[in-house]
Amino acid sequence: MGKNLKEAMKMLEDSQRRTEEANGNKVKSGDIPGPLQGSGQDMVSILQLVQNLMHGDEDEEPQSARVQSIGEQGHMALLGHSLGAYISTLDKEKLRKLTTRILSDTTLWLCRIFRYENGCAYFHEEEREGLAKICRLAIHSHYEDFVVDGFNVLYNKKPVIYLSAAARPGLGQYLCNQLGLPFPCLCRVPCNTMFGSQHQMDVAFLEKLIKDDIERGRLPLLLVANAGTAAVGHTDKIGRLKELCEQYGIWLHVEGVNLATLALGYVSSSVLAATKCDSMTMTPGPWLGLPAVPAVTLYKHDDPALTLVAGLTSNKPADKLRALPLWLSLQYLGLDGIVERIKHACQLSQRLQESLKKVNHIKILVEDELSSPVVVFRFFQELTSSVSDPTFKAVSAPNMAPSTVSRERHSCDALNRWLGEQLKQLVPLSGLTVMDLEVEGTCMRFNPLMTAAGLGTRAEDVDQLVAYIQSKLPVLSCTLQLREEFKQEVEGTAGLLYVDDPNWPGIGVVRYEHANDDKNSLKSDPEGEKIHAGLLKKLNELESDLTFKMGPEYKSMKSCLYIGMASEDVDISELVETIVVTTREIEENSRLLENMTEVVRKGIQEAQVELQKANEERLLEEGVLRQIPVVGSVLNWFSPVQALQKGRTFNLTEGSLVSTEPIYVYKAQGSGVTPPPTPSGSRPKQRLPGQKPFKRSLRGSDALSETSSVSHIEDLEKAEYLSSGLEHNTFESSSPEGHPGAPTPQKADKTEVLQKKAEHPEDDPPQVEEPESLR
């Protein structure tokens, strides 16, 4: 029986183990999150999920555009991706013929449109990928044994790739990572410093670098030139660079937005020279407003084997199908549609340039109005210390201190950054961007070739952009002029600390230093934060035109008060005085509230002690017999005690106890010592009706009109008073009974004279107006 029981337990354990293994090998439905649970989702649910992921939560950003507007040409490009997936299911022979036809047609059309004869095309998704393939082709062309020996052939003669200092950021690092080359293989060519554009490659310095590399045993491999730099759209001297590359056997590659102008009827000579280069990279998608369209690298090379090794050509049908969206879109647009879109973008930039030339304080950074469709501009203002001198400019300040010039530079950069953000919000269809240049500072860039076709920018949008710029210029000029005055006023005021924040576009930043403030520490101060919060509330209640903000952005720093832009002339002295007075009142009130609990507690304890002493003194004065219940009543009836009621009052202002005896003796409170008045701020400045705080008083004709209006009101009040006095005197003189206060004849004569003056005020000599300060 024990043996059978043991076998039964073993069988039960084996069965349980097999069940656990089966359950462990089978994936539970609850272990996989998301929509994979169950038997799958239907198509409607999947599309609804995609829509929700695309648009997100509409309640969080109701003002943001859901999806960029896509025209019919955009739908044609998107259709190409779906057709490419469908075409890939064909049999190999049909697929080969169709992909070859699509690739050859697209290559031929692009070469004819952009004047690049007898070229080949490589279509790629990443814009920099084409240049990396071209570098591989150049390496294979110059190093014949590279396929066999690999990088060993590069050791004795290192290749050199020349890039402009104005090239796209990160381009050189990308090439080295893709090619496996060390960073010393890159040579950064500086731009012009004396003659020409500061964003053009210095050709003379480039030739010197090439000669030095050849003497060191290096191989000049490839030069990347710009037909429209990424920042300002300037074009290098491609014709001169082509001659230099032919002389030293260097591969010339050109890229840039200005290559789009090759499709137009008239092309500048500097851009036209790009048609003679060895390769060029173009981005027709943004130029024509085509989404999800690949970039194109056109090149010229006679050896198909090297292009295959470099990866520029492929036998895979999937690689050839990359050109399908562009093949469909070019057929839909036609040559006229392509030229019209590029021409429209160039006209928009030309329209903006002509309009900004007429706007004061706007500086345009252009190289050639005909060759560059990129407009870069910035707000430019004279130095505040020399506003009256029109010949003194901020860029030509040799006699100014470097700190002053640097401060003015940071101030203009902050204002330009604010202006750019405002214009982006007001005119979103303009596609305006804000960028920082090394020499010029913060600028705004209008590049319609990259944005106009996708956003649908029109000429009306450009006019609206110019109108908004003109409306913001008074605010910028006024704010820039007041910054230095505000700084000097704050530095000359005790208790205030000027905070130099170059990124703040307003009048300035100030911090109040309270009594317990640790000046050597930058950590957050709860007491100072409380004072600044109260100051911010008080200033916002004044309903002035200025905007106030509490900072900083990082909570670990001390809080400050940020004063925003000024749209009109502001009285800085009044503003600073208001800040000082308000902060001191807030600090005093906070101290009073903090000490109130302790003062009241001590006062109550002192009052209790004194009242107890008063009770003991009263018992001694009345005697012991009066404290006995029956005897005391009889004694008080025969001989009542005339005792005064004594109490204590607590004066919160002085923090002391005062006897209440004068209250009961004289029946009036306050006959004693009058508490001192509560300290208050300075006398508020007298303002005219409708005048907002911190606005300067009117001068000149406005002041005269103000004085004349006040004098006129005073004359009216005097005439009304005299007329009322005359009526009263007439009533008294007409009464039958005499009156002790009746006017004498002399007074009557004076009354008649005053009445005549009231009836004929024009006969009075003009009064000399008093100065406004005396009034």
Automatic annotation (TrEMBL):
Coiled-coil annotated residue ranges, if any: 597-624
Region (Disordered): 1-36, 669-775
Gene Ontology annotations for the cellular component aspect, listed alphabetically: Golgi apparatus
Cofactor: pyridoxal 5'-phosphate
Keyword terms, alphabetized: Coiled coil, Decarboxylase, Lyase, Pyridoxal phosphate
InterPro entries the UniProt entry points to: GrpII_AminoAcid_Decarb, PDXDC1-like_2nd, PDXDC1-like_3rd, PyrdxlP-dep_de-COase, PyrdxlP-dep_Trfase, PyrdxlP-dep_Trfase_major
Domain PDXDC1-like third: 486-591
Membrane-crossing residue ranges in chain numbering: none
Chain intervals with Acidic residues compositional bias: 761-775
Basic and acidic residues bias: start-end ranges: 1-23, 747-760
Gene Ontology MF: a single term: pyridoxal phosphate binding
Record carries keyword Glycoprotein: no
Top-level taxon: Eukaryota
A biological-process GO annotation: carboxylic acid metabolic process
All copies of domain PDXDC1/PDXD2 second, residue ranges: 372-480
Record-linked PANTHER family: PTHR42735, PYRIDOXAL-DEPENDENT DECARBOXYLASE DOMAIN-CONTAINING PROTEIN 1-RELATED (PTHR42735:SF1)
Family: Belongs to the group II decarboxylase family.
Protein name: Pyridoxal-dependent decarboxylase domain-containing protein 1
